[in-house]
Amino acid sequence: MTHANRYSDVVADWSESKMGSQVGDGECWTLAHNVLVAVAAKCSSRGQEPCMTSQGLIHGYLRYSYIPSSTNPEPQGKVRDAGVARGDIIQLLKAHFKYPGGEAWAGDPDHTAIITGIEPNGVLRVVEQNVGGKKRVQTGKYDMAQLVSGEVRIFQVVGESWIGKLDPTW
Predict the structure, then answer these.
(1) Alpha-carbon gap, residue 158 to 49, rounded angstroms
(2) Within a 10 A sphere around the Cβ of 155, how many other Cβ atoms?
(3) Could you report how far apart the first and last alpha carbons of the chain are, in Å?
(4) Which are the contacts of 100, defined by CB distance < 8 A and separation ≥ 6?
(5) For the chain, the helix, strand and coil percentages under 3-state DSSP, each to the nearest 5
(6) 152 half-sphere exposure, CB direction, 13 A CA radius
(7) Backbone angles phi, psi at 118, to 5 degrees
């Protein structure tokens, strides 16, 4: 069983089950961290390999990264060809999007969300919290084709053996 098959739907389903509620302290990162802790515990209780939990702004295997510039368009193939999938975790760093008729920012300095789906045009559907000061889990969307500055990283949730168990204590 691949990492994606083992963890992806469980990560997305757990996150979606928290819609309208506050997870932990209501910070965006806490949603990602707490889902990974819950999924790791569930796997461990079944005798399966637990997933890696968030370590700072790293949430697993980096499968997509994008920093827009005039010489650096969105990666060829976009999010779909990169294999971005339901249950991946998106990390936005001072991301500025320009849409027809408006603009939006995500992450000042950073913002974390869980991907719940990808629309045919590549727009990412997410669940997130701490958006506009609202510390409750809600839906959102991000379109990498509209990103004009900042940085986006998307992580696939992986098992602890992928890198080895990390201990962030000093």
Answers:
(1) 10
(2) 24
(3) 34
(4) none
(5) 25, 35, 40
(6) 31
(7) -130, 120
Q: What is the pLDDT along the chain (170 residues), one digit of tens a residue?
A: 454 567 889 999 999 999 999 999 999 999 999 999 999 899 888 888 888 888 888 888 888 888 887 565 565 557 888 889 999 999 999 999 998 999 999 988 899 999 999 998 889 999 999 999 899 999 999 998 898 899 999 999 988 776 655 566 65
pTM metric for this prediction = 0.88
What lies within 8 Å, CB to CB, of 122 at 6+ separation is 78, 79, 80, 143, 144, 145
HEC profile for 89-158?
Answer: EEEEEEEEEEECCEEEEEEEEEEEEEEEEECCCCCEEEEECCECCECCCEEEEECHHHEEEEEEEEEECC
Q: Residues 139, 125: contact at Cβ < 8 Å?
A: yes
Residue 154 CA to chain centroid, in angstroms?
A: 6
